[in-house]
Amino acid sequence: MQLSSRATSLTPSLSLSIDSKAKAMKSEGIDVCTFAAGEPDFDTPEHIKAAAIAALESGFTKYTPSSGIPELRQAISEKLHRDNGINYKPNQIVVSTGAKHSCYNAILATCQPGDEVIIPSPYWLSYPEMVRLAGAEPVFVQTKEENAWKLTREEFENAMTPRTKMIIINSPNNPTGAVYTRGELEALGAVAAEEEILILADEIYEKLVYDENVHVSMASLGQEYYDLTITVNGFSKAYAMTGWRLGYLAAPEPVAKAIDSIQSHVTSNPCSFAQKGGLAALQGDQQTVIDMRDEFDMRRQYMVERFSKIQNVSIVRPGGAFYVLANISKLGLTSQNFADRLLSKANVTVVPGIAFGDDRTIRFSYATSLDVIKKGMDRFEDFCRTL
Ligand SMILES: *Cc1c(COP(=O)(O)O)cnc(C)c1O
Asked: Which residues line ligand 1 (CB under 6 A)?
């Protein structure tokens, strides 16, 4: 059967292949320390599960409006006002099957063949493929370690062409942990506003910020920013709900309407009872979010401390999310080679940076217990000494 060029041009996820290798080793009884996780290692809080169970038991098992149940869109509207300082009416909000789906919907509704989408690198590995699926072209801009892996105004300007349609800004960032300040976002947003370039603001890690960092939403910076921004967020990271497949975006009304149209033909609504869980997440006690954040922060500080003592490996202290990006280029291996050898020689999994567009780095996730982190960092340190 002849596959479409759309399908054959996709790159399979590297992080998943590492994961399956690690699982195979584990099933052979090998003690593998994994830093490859892309999801919180916590369980979904009980009150959220209870709300979904109650919804199921009451028969809330039918189709809902494609863009989500009104009470959830209302709660998201209130959340975006309260937490992010942005005013979106419920009809500007589309709930989807994960923030990933929201990103894809946003790109599909706005980008087409001939358009370029600027993606700061290292990047979350799904962005380029989503852009390609929309028939548009990703344009990568390498950010610098000395700039804490953050895109500068000049770098953005230099990457711009008459075909630039959109820029994707992910703060807090996966894989770098970078958190953009208000001033940095204002500078980038001003460039976008001048040229009327759309901004996809992926804010899925907003609740996971540390030290003096604060999360700032692009759309909150002023009307000219708001008019160009599609704000994406969801439940997976803040509420440990990755398997529920629930996320959302908020956008100017015509954009939200177009996205709802697309979604209504492709997936219809997100899972009905998952939406009730999402509602409970937003309306319930937020202490679980703070507790998870504090646990991540403790692990992060431990990791940073360990990296500070490892020769020839550099990191930028991550300000958010749950990743540490380590520059291993001084050790003389490609990221894939490094990750393969680290797994076979030291039983430690990481994701090679090549998956994020940066072959000098490897990504450590600290969404795993402190015991595993300690043991894994001991092994990593020993491994680096052998190179
Ligand atoms: C995890 C993640 C998402 C998507 O999460 P969903 O589970 O689809 O809600 C989006 N963007 C980034 C950068 C992520 O790491």
From this structure: 98-100, 124, 170, 174, 202, 204, 234, 236-237, 242, 247
B/e letters for 271-289, b = 16+ CB within 10 Å, e = fewer, are: bbbbbbbbbbbbebeeebb
pTM: 0.97
Atom 5 of ligand 1, residue of closest alpha carbon: 99
Q: Where are the beta strands (DSSP E) in the chain?
A: 33-34, 93-96, 116-121, 137-142, 164-170, 198-202, 229-234, 247-250, 314-315, 323-327, 348-349, 351-352, 361-365
**What are the per-10-residue average pLDDT scores of the chain (387 residues)?**
89 75 90 93 97 98 98 98 98 98 98 98 96 97 98 98 98 98 98 97 98 98 98 98 98 98 97 98 97 98 98 97 98 95 96 96 97 98 96
Q: Which amino acid is at 39?
A: E
- Domain spans, the chain: 5-44+287-385, 60-283
How many angstroms is it from 199 CA to the middle of ligand 1? Answer: 17
Do the domains 60-283 and 5-44+287-385 match in fold?
A: no
**Best mutation site among 94, 97, 100 for ligand 1 pocket (most ligand atoms within 8 Å of CB):** 100
CA of 249 to the centre of ligand 1 (A): 12
Q: Residue 125's closest CA among 62, 163, 185, 174?
A: 174
CA of residue 186 to ligand 1 center, whole Å: 24
Dist. CA 48 → ligand 1 center (Å):
19
Which of 237, 296, 363 has the most ligand 1 atoms within 8 A of CB, as the residue to mutate?
237
CA of 383 to the centre of ligand 1 (A): 31
> DSSP 3-state assignment of 204?
coil
Structure-token pair, residue 380: 């990593």
Q: 272 CA to middle of ligand 1, Å?
A: 20
For the CA of 241, the closest atom of ligand 1 is 7
Pairwise CA distance, residues 357 & 353, whole Å: 6
Question: Quick one: CATH architecture of 5-44+287-385?
Answer: Alpha-Beta Complex (3.90)
Architecture of the structural domain at 60-283: 3-Layer(aba) Sandwich (3.40)
Tell me what pLDDT residue 363 has: 98
